[in-house]
Design a protein that fits this description.
The chain is 9% helix and 40% strand. It is mainly beta. It has one domain (52-182): Jelly Rolls (Sandwich), CATH 2.60.120. The strands form three sheets. A six-stranded antiparallel sheet has the order 1-2-10-7-12-5, with no helix packed on it. The chain has a five-stranded antiparallel sheet with strand order 9-8-11-6-13, with no helix packed on it. The longest helix has 9 residues, at 38-46. It is globular, with a radius of gyration of 17 Å.
C-alpha cells in the first residue's frame, strides 16, 4: 500500500497553477512514483472535473527550448527522464498574475507534476543530455487551438539557463506578449 499522507499540492505564484509532489519509493530494483491522482490532487482543489483526452510525449536533446506555447486546454506536465527548466507564463488577460512567469527545474532530481490551466503558456529548456517530457491534456489538439510567445520577450525577462537555446523555426517567429495584448501595456 502506498502512503498518500506525504502529498504536496502547492499553489505557485501564478493563479491556478499547481505543483503536485507525491512520494517516490526507491529500492535496489528502481523506484515507484504515483505522479498524480486526478480527483484527489486536482479536481477537489480546482472544484472542476478534468477529463483525460490526449497524452503527448516529447524527447529533446540538451539546449532545446520548446515554447512558450499557450493552449486552450488544461495540461498536466511531467518529466519522465532527464532534467528541464520548465517555465509557465500567465497569458490570461483577465488574470491578476497576467504577464508573470514562474520557473521550475523538474525531472529525475525533482519528480513533480505541474498543472497548467487554459491560457497559461508552457515551455521547457532541456538541461540534461536528453529529456522525455510528457503531458496530459483535457482536450484533443486542433489547428488554431494554441499560439506562441517569444521565448526571449523582454517584458517577461525570463532567466533561462542558457543564452542561446535550440528553437524550432516556428518558435523563432513567436510574437512578444505586448504584440498579442497591446491593451495590457501602457503606451
Amino acid at each position: 500500500m502506498v502512503d498518500t499522507s506525504r502529498v504536496y499540492l502547492t499553489p505557485t505564484s501564478l493563479q491556478g497553477v499547481f505543483l503536485v509532489e507525491r512520494p517516490v519509493y526507491e529500492d535496489s530494483r528502481g523506484f515507484f512514483h504515483e505522479v498524480e491522482r486526478r480527483q484527489t490532487d486536482l479536481e477537489n482543489q480546482l472544484d472542476m472535473s478534468l477529463r483525460h483526452a490526449q497524452w503527448n510525449h516529447s524527447r529533446s536533446q540538451r539546449g532545446v527550448l520548446r515554447g512558450i506555447h499557450v493552449a486552450q486546454w488544461n495540461k498536466c506536465v511531467y518529466v519522465v527522464r532527464g532534467e528541464v527548466q520548465c517555465v509557465i507564463v500567465d497569458a490570461r488577460p483577465t488574470s491578476p498574475t497576467f504577464g508573470q512567469h514562474e520557473s521550475f527545474v523538474l525531472g529525475e532530481g525533482r519528480r513533480a507534476m505541474l498543472f497548467v490551466p487554459v491560457g497559461c503558456g508552457n515551455s521547457f529548456l532541456v538541461l540534461s543530455d536528453w529529456a522525455d517530457f510528457m503531458y496530459s491534456v483535457d482536450a484533443e489538439w486542433y489547428a488554431g487551438g494554441e499560439y506562441g510567445i517569444a521565448w526571449d520577450d523582454p517584458d517577461l525577462a525570463i532567466p533561462w539557463q542558457t543564452p542561446a537555446p535550440l528553437l524550432s523555426e516556428k518558435d523563432q517567429q513567436n510574437p512578444r506578449l505586448r504584440e498579442l495584448f497591446p491593451e495590457k501595456f501602457a503606451p
